[in-house]
Amino acid sequence: MSEPVTGAREVDADGICWVPVRHHSPAATRAVRDLVERLRPRAVLVEGPSDYTRTDQLLLPHEPPVSLMTWWRRETAERTQVAYALYPFTVFSPEWHALRDGAAIGADVRFVDLPWHLQVVVEQGGYDEAAAAAADGVALHRTDEVSDSFFDRLSAHTGRPEMSAVWDELAEIDPALSTATYLHRAAVLGAGIRADADARARRGARGRAERRLDVAREAHMAAGVRRARADHPDGVLLVVTGAAHTAALQERLAAAPRDDERAGPPPTPDDVVTGQAIVPSSYEALDEQRGYLAGQPSPGFYDRVHRAAEDDGDGPGAVGPAQVTEHVLVEAVAALREAGAPLSAADLIAARASMLGLATLRGHPRPWRDDLVDALTSTLVKDTVAADAATSADGGHPLINRVRVLMRGDAVGRLAPGTDLPPLVLEVEARCAELGMPLERRAASYTLDLEQDGDRTRAQLLQRLRVLEIPAARLVRDVRDGTGPVGAQVTARVDPTQEWSVRGGTTVTAQAVLASRYGASIEQAVLAVLARRVASGEVEDLTAALLDAVLCGLPDLTGRLSEAVEVATLAVDRVAGLADPLAVLLRLHRFDRWYGTTDRADLGALLRLVGLRCVELVERLPPQAAGATSRDLAAALRRLVDAVVASPALRDLEPRLAAALAAQLGRGATRSGHAPEAVGALTGARWLLESVAPDPGDAPGGRGATGGRAPQGAPDPAGTGEWYAGLLTVAGHLALAAPEIFDPLDAALRQWEDTDFRRALPDLRRAAAGLLPRERRALLAHLGPDGGPPAAALDVPPEVLESLVAREDALWALVEEHVGPLASRSGGSG
Amino acid sequence: MSSPTPAPTRVQRPSAEVRWADELARLRERDAAAGAVVPDGWHLSPRSVVDFVLGDAGRRDGLGLETKFVGERALVERCVVALATDRGLMLVGEPGTAKSFLSELLAAAVSGDSTLTVQGTASTTEDAIKYSWNYALLLARGPSLDALVPAPVHRGMSDGKVVRFEEITRCPIETQDSLLSVLSERLLVVPELDDEHRVLHARRGFAVVATANVRDRGVNDMSAALKRRFNFETIHAISDVRRETALVQRQSDAILADAGITSTVPGDLTEVLVTLFSELRRGQTADGRPVEQLSTAMSTAEAVSVAVATGLAAAWFADRPPRGEDVVGALLGTALKDSDDDRSRLRGYLTRVAKERGGRWRELYAARDLLDG
Q1: A383 in contact with B at a CB cutoff of 8 Å?
Q2: Can you name the CATH fold of B8-235?
Q3: Identity of the residue in A156, A378, A571 whose CB atom sits nearest the CB atom of B232
Q4: For the packed helices B21-34 and B99-111, what is the interaxial angle rounded to 10 degrees?
Q5: pLDDT, tens digit, for every residue of A282-334?
Q6: Three-state DSSP class for A68?
């Protein structure tokens, strides 16, 4: 595979030097820089949006990675659409250097690709269809194409299944690859990919759609090249485009202009406004985009490869091209040790030997990143690795993930001073001013009443800024909605106002610029940030993200968010794990006062998803151990039953839930292995569902108490306490509604010895503590007059009482000395 | 020392070096012609070992080597490098993922001999691993080389060959640890023998390939000291549904033919079966919707069993070509073990996923009630 190519001309008969590239490639960058230096072209034409004329902005001294964001906005009577796309540039992007090196030698630098807002029209047929598809911010330099017959054979030959790995084999790994060989291989690869695309177009609709877009873009680019030639009749033109386009462009330029070139691009409708801006990007963002979307796995690694090639081992601390991967190996081992992995020198030796062995076996001129990752995986990981390790977000194993994070790098780009502000920043300032909260240097205070529409809109805007981590707004005081257990109002003092502190300034602007990498508009950016948080897969993150979505006033949570909820709930295998999301959703869907979420269809759908999953988990409940497991189950059952009873979205699940509870209880104490507290909780849940009336016979010892049934002997004291604790956690109000369930307990208590009573006391106390005062009073009233000895009246002399109170106060003061002020304590009377 | 092997056609399952003897010969010739570097003690160059295991279909300069192990090239390369750098190789994975087969292929290619195998069980002792004695000779003439009965590790060390240790984690940890000095110092001490023969140094080419099944005991039952001496490779189920389908079809056809059944499982039914296995195994459908996984491994080997059971049931009991309901019945018998939850999950899958698809999927959905029986 290493035949140097000689005799091929770099510049064709028309004076054009065609440079097929892969975006974000150190090898392509080297070739481009070499060609610009040697050929001194008159014009440098780059694949990028031709409607972007502010190349002076792009040439400012930014620190990559940065992206050129291009967006369109369309206002119609029904709605406003906004969509954006990104052209990322890194320090190892050939286009980045083509522009800069070209400008440095005084060449005319231009973008020649079809503007994105017109690509959208070609691809989707119109703006109405377009917005839905493009809501995610398509990144435009398409790099990893789908495999097909040319690619399949190339893949079989190189032994690598993915495009980025194949490209590495052809162009990146050999540090001494000449420009001539690079051009030859890139051209052949590009032509082959194009041939595969043609084959796909002949086979199906999707292929034809892709082809249509490619053809439209090439027509526009060819016209651009001809125009540049007309403007610069002498001298060399350097044309830098993705490899798949090069052959097609050469074909077009070899003949007369075709009809589609002469026709020009489709016109931009009057109701569409377009714009571009430069925004910061990050290696993290680049690494995330895979496959069809442009992106670059492990950008931090390629960054080092590029810098090593530029420095070529000169200067202090410089790493030569051959040593890049070895340096990364040493850093990776250090990072792993720092993360707590016990790696010895012997491990490092083994890893290095494996890395070098793999590089030799694979015929690599120098060890490469896949050699490194494979060697580390093989020598250091001592358990199983997930199947999709190569492409999964977390690397399939924590150790590999750590290495991937290292190779990804954490660089974040910075815009040079003097750069125009991105659209999101302008929108933030405009909206704040429009709503009467201008961003000024001095902080200003605003009290917002969430029951007023206007103030609610203001609060939503400020919440959005918070989610985007733009420090323009700080919530000084939140609402007080006085709710305790679901729906029950515990205090009458409800305060619907919030107090916010709002300010502007350079930090705020800087953070807003940073946030602009998430979207061209505030709403888009918030959706993107929340979607990322939800994608973490943890149920807590999910709940928090859902709440934030509501606080931000996002109109519709279906789509991405609901898919993520579905995935996250299926991953939970304990009812207790879903208690919080269920409670939050129920509250929002049924009992919300201020956020406009009551009875919303999308929230109802999410509530149903989570509720259904909870019922399934109750059906499959494994034996619940005593202690935290049973306590969590009781709390979760309470929420679940409340949700099923209170929400129309879940009402039809009631029979299924009742059946599940009955089945769990019917398993019998010995076989099911449920601890008493769990059994109590299940019983309470069953009673709460309207279809079943409470039966004192279900209580421990209940059979004996009601007479006529087989007595079970004096019930186990510890078990009884736990059973009631579980029951009352779920169905405390039964003390009010059906106090006779306590009769068996009353009877049992009289039979117990002191030691038995003490054993049961903690759990009984816990059970009773959860009762509301009214419920406690009702219980006492039920048990009271003829139950047990009357309470002896306590006769305490006043001076004794006084000294007791004084002593208690002194004790509390001592505690506060050590612990800090306590929130509340009842003084003296208890 | 072993009795003469019967001719390959009479043997139930010929070992890899016998079955593919001609491929190995061609690869040796190619190595010699190209002057390829062959590590000391090996029969083939590392590159040729990889080609032998994976085959070279689709390569213009190929030798027409059959694809034997379906998996990633990078995985096989790592395995070969582990053996070439004198590290132990540990293949771990779910049951039915062809770990033993891969270890057999590697041994056949590297050493020309895949029979030096220790089968790990709870009662495996050092005798079965290192060496034991011919007690009659021992008592008659005292300790000598003649009286020593070499076990696979001894043979592998003295001949410079790959030794395979299947299901190593089923052995007690103490037994496993008897490999520690063998792997580090590459020597074996036989204290009973005289000075000249007491220490056996491993010849070049000696290596150990172990396998462990994560579902039974897993690799937690291995001492850290021993783990350190191995490179671990996880063998996954085949990720490409097309290739897996082809494999299942091939193998089930062969087994049904052996059983005298003339009909086979139709291709579209096999595809549905393999897709079902693949989706349940991965926990998501082909278009990314989440699916609840069963508690069993849903391996390719089990898919073959289900396909065979399907074919047999249809042929013997229904006298018609196999249908979706036969697949569901076979699933009950083979893939689902004793878990009620698994039935519920499978039913959920049929309701959520199979119901929406056409063709054979509808037959499966229609038969979902069999799961309750």
Answers
A1: yes
A2: Rossmann fold (3.40.50)
A3: A378
A4: 50
A5: 888 887 654 333 456 889 999 999 999 888 766 676 778 888 999 999 999 99
A6: strand
